[in-house]
Design a protein that fits this description.
Layout: E1 2-6, H1 15-18, E2 23-26, H2 28-33, E3 41-44, H3 48-60, E4 65-69, H4 79-86, E5 91-94, H5 99-107, E6 115-118, H6 124-133, E7 136-140, H7 147-153, E8 159-164, E9 173-177, H8 179-183, E10 191-197, H9 236-246, E11 253-257, H10 263-270, E12 274-279, H11 282-294, E13 300-303, E14 319-322, H12 329-339, E15 343-348, H13 354-363, E16 367-373, E17 376-381, E18 385-390, E19 394-400, E20 409-410
């Protein structure tokens, strides 16, 4: 009883689809462009709930309804709301070409490996973090979440492709700009989609599964998978539990404070999170860069000492890992806990600093817990025998807030 028509990027609505419709719902420009049947009620889409209530009245009378939508209405479109309200069996969906597919076609790139994120009616930070972490992203924009807002938050190494009025022969524009150029302009309301590209990696490899690269098949990688100095690296047993408590995912921002080799930063980036690593030593900064390159991920590295260096980080993180120690550790944890949205995980060797770290986490409103991790690894001995070699014990403390729901990422 409900026919949903995706108008694609400028495709006209066939007259036979509209024939006999008692109610036609859609955006004003779609309704103005269509030849509506005589006597059909016309509802301009604004707030969704009243429109769905009107549709329900016609469905209850078994009268035919046509809904006109942009692009592919099953892709971040109205099909979801209609299926939830009336059931998928009540829908006949005629999809159009999505703005994402059209935008990539305009610049000659495949998009089976792209990440698609909606910023329409959502917090732009999720889209920004996805763009920071992935080489090929399509952002469905909205008010206060357009090219200017994306450009203001992105590094200089990205290129933004702003596609406006796709499918309109007179108004369509596809422009490549730097983030700085995007931030300086008023783009109006005609933007269809923004592509964010790391052009050196934008073509990508041949894929058998669409979407971004799958989550890593393994984590808590061996220490020899990272460049490090004198075994100064978070051991894989500690990393395994730290990653479980950090919960890195696409759209997140994670800080690795006192990064050292950057092993935690790299592993979080492999899960699709945007990552900032803070490291005070110049050689440590170089190691983090080298390890990120070796594992094919993006990690922004800040050279500086915490807690002072943290004040220069504009965006609050979802999760923070704090490694190392020193007298500044309680102050560092306090600074991180004030800004972390979901979790703070702290690895430390000194028993004496555990109470201060716990106090810093609980004072910031986190539920605090922790363990002492002690492990013994298999080690060979002469004569083809094996012994157990103990690693240094490490305290791992964590503070968790109530999870914050987040939408918008297609994986």
């Amino acid at each position: 009883m409900i026919t949903v028509v995706g108008t694609g990027t400028g495709a006209p609505v066939p007259d036979d689809v509209l024939a006999g419709a008692a109610l036609v719902v859609g955006g004003r420009r779609h309704l103005d462009a269509a030849r509506l049947p005589e006597g059909a009620e016309r509802v301009v889409l604004g707030p969704l709930a009243p429109a769905l209530d009107t549709v329900a009245r016609y469905v209850g009378k078994e009268l035919p309804v046509v809904v006109l939508a942009s692009g592919d209405p099953g892709f971040f479109g109205i099909v979801r709301a209609l299926a939830e309200r009336f059931g998928a069996g009540a829908l006949r969906v005629l999809p159009g070409v999505s703005s994402v597919a059209t935008a990539f076609a305009r610049i000659g790139l495949p998009w089976d490996d792209a990440v698609v994120v909606s910023a329409h009616g959502r917090d732009v930070r999720t889209a920004v973090n996805v763009c920071r972490a992935h080489p090929k992203v399509a952002v469905l924009t909205g008010p206060e979440a357009g090219p200017a807002e994306l450009g203001a938050a992105l590094p200089a190494g990205r290129v933004l492709v702003v596609a406006s009025a796709l499918g309109d022969p007179a108004r369509e524009r596809v422009e490549r700009v730097t983030p700085t150029e995007a931030a300086a302009r008023d783009w109006g309301t005609a933007v269809s989609v923004v592509l964010c590209l790391d052009e050196a990696r934008a073509l990508g490899a041949v894929r058998t599964v669409a979407g971004p690269a799958a989550h890593p098949g393994g984590w808590a990688l061996d220490e020899d998978g990272f460049a490090h100095r004198d075994s100064m690296i978070t051991k894989f047993e500690v990393r395994a539990l730290a990653l479980a408590r950090l919960g890195p995912r696409p759209g997140d921002l994670v800080w690795d404070v006192g990064a050292g080799s950057g092993s935690v930063a790299v592993e979080c980036a492999r899960f699709g999170a945007a990552v900032v690593a803070v490291e005070k030593t110049p050689d440590g900064v170089e190691r983090v860069h080298a390890n990120a390159r070796a594992h094919g991920v993006d990690v922004r590295v800040v050279h500086g000492s915490a807690p002072d260096a943290l004040s220069g980080l504009a965006d609050d993180p979802d999760a923070v890992f704090v490694g190392g120690g020193g007298r500044e550790l309680p102050a560092i944890v306090t600074a991180c806990a004030r800004r972390a949205r979901r979790s703070v995980v702290v690895a430390l060797a000194a028993l004496d600093r555990v109470p201060a770290v716990r106090e810093a986490l609980t004072a910031a409103g986190f539920a605090c817990d922790g363990v002492l991790l002690q492990s013994s690894r298999l080690a060979p001995l002469p004569g083809d025998v094996t012994r157990l070699a103990a690693t240094n014990p490490v305290f791992l403390l964590w503070g968790l807030r109530t999870p914050v729901p987040r939408e918008g990422v297609v994986q």
